Amino acid sequence: MDLRSSSENEPPVIVRPSRDGDVEAMLSIYRRHIRLGVDEGVSDSDMPQADDLRDRRKNLKNRRFPHLVATRNGDVLGYAYVVLFRKRPAYRYTVKHSIYIHHDHVGHGIGRALMRELIDVCAAAGFRQIIGYIDSDNVASLALHERFGFARVGLLPGVAFRHGGWSDTVMVQRSLATGATTPPPAGGR
Ligand SMILES: CC(C)(COP(=O)(O)OP(=O)(O)OC[C@H]1O[C@@H](n2cnc3c(N)ncnc32)[C@H](O)[C@@H]1OP(=O)(O)O)[C@@H](O)C(=O)NCCC(=O)NCCS
Asked: What is the pTM of this model?
């Protein structure tokens, strides 16, 4: 549980592990960002369904992968989670994250509170590297990741077709805990 107040007269943002009851709120946040991501009308059938998020969340939680929501007054205003960067056992200490804030609540410090907690919880869970993929024109997300010490480690030119044009994706990475400076504990993840 992490309590931070983004501005004096606003109730605090509480970051906590997600619950099954949060799925509908997460779904509407996610769908809105998908619709904004591409301008071609994404049909409802192509949109992720509640069960998709519900199953993914349950699967991640069962495997002790952080899955967090940020709330204010009990309303879910954002969520963030990690999956394995690659399934092969050698990569079991490296995760890839996603973070989404409700479009009416961006720019109010909720992304900051969520990212802070996600990094701390992933480090505590024994992960050593965290990776993200960000659209090259996503100024807010690039700035957020820079603020948390993510380095730009790669560029994937022309991998996305959105708004009628090809666009690049930036790969960002930061280490967690001791990163690659010490071996993982015996019997680690
Ligand atoms: C990217 C996103 C998660 C940022 O969350 P947010 O709650 O809006 O960000 P915050 O208000 O906590 O701002 C955190 C930092 O991000 C940066 N930032 C946020 N919005 C910004 C903007 N519009 N322009 C420039 N920098 C911005 C600032 O550095 C800010 O830190 P500071 O104010 O402490 O200096 C949010 O805008 C979002 O969900 N976007 C759509 C989905 C998405 O792109 N997810 C990321 C995919 S990788």
From this structure: 0.93
User: Over the stretch 7-36, which tens digit does the pLDDT of each residue have?
Assistant: 667 889 999 999 999 999 999 999 988 877
Between 141 and 63, the higher pLDDT residue: 141
Decide: 169 and 135 in contact? Cβ < 8 Å: yes
Residue 149: count of CB within 10 angstroms of its CB: 11
Domain enclosing residue 98, as ranges: 2-175
Within 6 A (CB) of ligand 1 lie 33, 99-101, 106-112, 132, 134, 138-141, 143-144, 147
Which residue minimizes the CA distance to atom 16 of ligand 1?
144
Give the CATH number for residue 55: 3.40.630.30
Token duo for residue 66 = 């952080």
Answer yes or no: is 96 within a domain. yes
C-alpha 141 – ligand 1 centre gap (Å): 5
Sheet of 2-4: strand order equals 2-4, 13-17, 67-72, 75-84, 94-101, 129-135, 165-175, 151-162
Number of domain units in the chain: 1
Tell the residue nearest (CA) to atom 31 of ligand 1.
144
The mean pLDDT value of the chain amounts to: 91
